């Protein structure tokens, strides 16, 4: 147990002991004491609680504390300004992220301090008030708030040089980003884009104002509150018990097949959307559906992908592909899938056409790998 945890636990016991037994004035005195001791303990960790904002008086696991901390920043602009001054900030230039190579050969965002960004803004002749445009993205395991900022008004090459990084289109960089970097950068880009296209109220045409965290925008004239939007998308790996069904759109890279996917229609359930998409795209009827997992997907914009496995009856596997949606759809054996999963790099122009699958970081890859593993396990258990 680290020293901070020990202090937190002690404070927790004190605060909890106070709550049920002491008079409200005793309690508020103790809460004040806890507040100032917490502030001094958290200062080295660069977490600040402004006096006016609500300070939690019970302390929970690291995860719960982080979630409550983030939530408090969304609710209190002052707390958010204070957190920004001690945060990790990563940059975009017109939605293109600033990245750097990591020791392990992949990419990560360039994390900067407030003063790093402040001094470069000054050097490049920009108003440092631009920093207030930063948007809260998350909180690291080390309790460091993470913000992103689009510096699209500055010279891109000059910013890249100052921070020893490189601005790289997210479509190219996504699969090279490290495991925690990919979802963080995707989320940040999605939030920045959402703010860029929601500057005006759809009802009144008046400008909308964001809160400091960037978790909402409000039109003061209509009082409409706008929240960041995602489009729900279903993705499904269909199996007939022995083979799985994959399709490809003409826009996919050559040789790549993926699980069937589609945007949900308004009012549909997850199950209805899955059955409709599969019926529309390949003309088969699903028998059973089981949920696997989900993913935020940044392309083309913000999608919330819900991943499932589904079965069809082995007697009804005849495909009738809608060629306006898919270039091809086929059943693949477990051996074909295993070899497709071995292909680790995108085939280059001129390479012979070979079958390959969406890379890791994709929900399609997760569903296909889960299916392959289940098939292997069931073969093993049958001897
Ligand atoms: N992360 C992953 O593993 C995978 C992600 N995907 C993503 O799933 C998404 C949906 O797959 P598709 O087969 O293209 O969908 P789809 O089969 O629904 O067809 C796309 C068409 O749906 C319409 N549409 C309806 N609502 C839309 C909305 N909110 N946004 C955009 N278009 C909408 C448009 O006409 C569009 O051309 C794609 O964006 C793709 O990038 C697809 C496969 C794997
Ligand atoms: Mg589709």
TrEMBL record:
Residues 228-356 form the Nudix hydrolase domain. It catalyses: NADH + H2O = reduced beta-nicotinamide D-ribonucleotide + AMP + 2 H(+); NAD(+) + H2O = beta-nicotinamide D-ribonucleotide + AMP + 2 H(+); NADPH + H2O = reduced beta-nicotinamide D-ribonucleotide + adenosine 2',5'-bisphosphate + 2 H(+). It is an enzyme of class 3 (hydrolase). One of its GO terms (molecular function) is metal ion binding. This is NAD(+) diphosphatase. It comes from Nothobranchius furzeri. InterPro entries: NADH_PPase-like_N, NudC-like_C, NUDIX_hydrolase-like_dom_sf, NUDIX_hydrolase_CS, NUDIX_hydrolase_dom, Znr_NADH_PPase. Pfam families: NUDIX, NUDIX-like, Zn_ribbon_NUD. The keyword Magnesium applies. Keywords: Hydrolase, Magnesium, Metal-binding, NAD. Its EC number is 3.6.1.22. The gene is NUDT13. Its cofactor is Mg(2+).
